[in-house]
Amino acid sequence: MPDAGPTVVLPRRPLTVGELLDSAVLLLRNQARVLIPLALVLAVAEQFLLFPLRLGAGTAPPAWWLRVDSFGAYWLLLAVGAATEAVIVTLLGNPAARAAAGTLFGRTVAARDLLRPAGARWGVTGALAALVGVLMFGMSLFGPAWFVGFALLGAVAPALVVDRVPALRAPVRSATLALRLGGRAGWIRLLAYLVWWIVRIGLGLGVWYAVTGLDLFDPGWGDLLSLAIWAGVNAVAYPALACLDAVLHLETRTRTEGLDIRLSRAAPTAAEATLLAVPR
């Protein structure tokens, strides 16, 4: 049985906020060769999707900040960016959640198993990721509503692939868990986003000014350099958020549903998927 310790990704007990963040980083480290390349492909696609909107909003690298004379176009850019972030994190949540589930049984899920399509529900995950993106786009247009959507929709992929709930029930399951214990899971997800937003801004601007300050790049390629930097930074931040969603989901189930007790009392021959699935 997994026990608490510095190398354990997810011990079978309630965790503090700091332990949850540590667990997410450990999970990402263990599955980096799957999650980071996948995230990089998605992050590059996101940057090319957002680039025309940035030009339309009159922004410029490296930070692509708001210009007061193009507020409407910039607001649209923010909403689309929030939607693409949500889509990517939800997609990455599929392998991250399956990897996190394996740690509850003291094993590291092999990369080939995470990439194997059988039983992974990738098609449904893609459809739900699109739905989450649409919801986040709509909420982002109303400003503060983004916080509500982001807090409630973090466990859509874990609910789908770990809890094995029907597709239409996954967003409801995610919101239900996020609101338990006074919205603890939702607040932690917002905190994690803030932490990684600060890290992303710091790394992105730091790399930009280091490269341009040392004349390591032709100024005429500034747009491309900026896209590459932000894609690289997001290729780490997005899977980190997906890993946080995965461990937070399982920890919330431990706190509120006694998942740890159920696993400890299970027969040694019981199937992992059956033990983790919730009744329909």
Automatic annotation (TrEMBL):
The protein's UniProt keywords, in alphabetical order, are: Membrane, Transmembrane, Transmembrane helix
Residue stretches spanning the membrane: 34-53, 73-97, 118-139, 145-165, 186-211, 227-248
- Mind telling me what this protein is named? Membrane domain of glycerophosphoryl diester phosphodiesterase
Name its species.
Answer: Micromonospora nigra
Give the organism's phylogenetic lineage.
Bacteria, Bacillati, Actinomycetota, Actinomycetes, Micromonosporales
